[in-house]
């Protein structure tokens, strides 16, 4: 079925929940390739620095640009998440000092690690709803600034109980991952969303590696001023706390929710309709694909979160490294996010161009399974060089899988995009909590044994990707539906709206998204869908 260009040419896009059908319509359409056509001054796309689709989502990605609104939202999103990652795992590289100061046992340290990621299970769920109803700008800024006092409080902990409680509260800031992925998903078109989400998530995840270098460095600098070790680690936490406050202010002052403006402003002007939380929540939780993504992310990102808590201590204790050297080795795991997660997203996009959504699903399964196998190897490594090699290969596979997963997530639902992003993100924290409780919070398993068992569990829990099926695109092993209506993107995304809501035009944003997502059929299907002229060959041949 060819796209209905009468619906997509130049109308002011909602970028989120649909329009009211009262907007002015312009006749000019933007072509994908170079054009000599002059852009009219009343063309609504002329105000954007990047070429956009019918929803005003950018069709190109320029990471060195800070152009408003698309690239500015991208950079504000990933840097905010990066800052929160630093805060959440700031304690991990300083554990050898902190445990001596507070007389922590291995169980105390393990429980604190679980606590650091458990709080985000709830905050990520809440953040999904906040993004759907209030916008990503407020969600990101509030998360940064409300959790900053908890970071400062780490300087005043006196025992194991307060240490655990403060790490639990700091972990709430990891909800910025949800707002980051949501923000980029409403700013960039589906054809490049894997790469964009991969870069945003991966570069934010690098905070887990940077903090392994930053906190020991700050610790040593403070010691040089004459502070004792037990005082130096406490002052070190003021750095991530101030970073969060600064980023919160920047997001509020420089950010923009949607390509066309802030959500509240667009709602007041009638360009975007206000949705109901009960409807958004219902369409998120009843979609079985949401829960499969929850599990999958639990054993990709969840495994990565667990590693951030244990890897420095693993190398410090197992191979008798110094605190600084163990931090450098551990940092390399997180720093691989700079290229690994974007690679996974890019691989997902390439597979989609060739094979459609089925290509995205196969890419996700391959990357996550390979990463899990290298995790098993890491636990069985007996020498430092082999352990570092296994860790790096494990890092690339697992982080690339995270990028590939968020190449799939934006297509599960249009109406409940924020909440589904929140549930998926919460799955990562849930999986991390489970693996840390099972394998790293008691003396039942050594850290090496825990790593191998976690890898085995990840291999098994990656299998459900085979059950994700989209009627319009198919699954890993099954073809798309042959039913005339169910095989259409408009039927899948339009099904999230009632007939009454459709009569008010509230579903128009979903229909535009459906039209723009036809690329998920794959190259052969898209070419077959282009009508052949009565005489001659198709224009694209």
The CA-CA distance between the termini, in Å, is 19 Å
How is the biggest beta sheet arranged?
A: none
Indicate the low-confidence ranges by residue numbers: 1-42, 536-541
Radius of gyration, whole Å: 24 Å
Strand residues, percent: under 5%
Structural class: mainly alpha
Total beta strands: 0
- What is the global morphology? globular
Bin the helical content: 55-70%
- State mean pLDDT (0 to 100 scale): 86
Order of helices and strands, N to C? HHHHHHHHHHHHHHHHHHHHHHHHH
Helix run count: 25
Write the layout of secondary structure elements.
Layout (H helix, E strand, L loop, with lengths): L4 H4 L61 H19 L6 H8 L3 H28 L2 H18 L6 H11 L5 H12 L5 H13 L1 H18 L4 H8 L1 H17 L8 H7 L7 H9 L2 H11 L2 H18 L4 H13 L1 H19 L1 H24 L3 H22 L11 H23 L7 H15 L27 H6 L4 H5 L4 H9 L6 H7 L12
Helix pairs in contact: 2-5, 2-7, 2-8, 2-9, 2-11, 4-5, 4-6, 4-7, 4-20, 5-6, 5-7, 5-11, 7-8, 7-20, 8-17, 8-19, 9-10, 9-16, 14-20, 15-16, 15-19, 15-20, 16-19, 17-18, 17-19, 18-19, 18-21
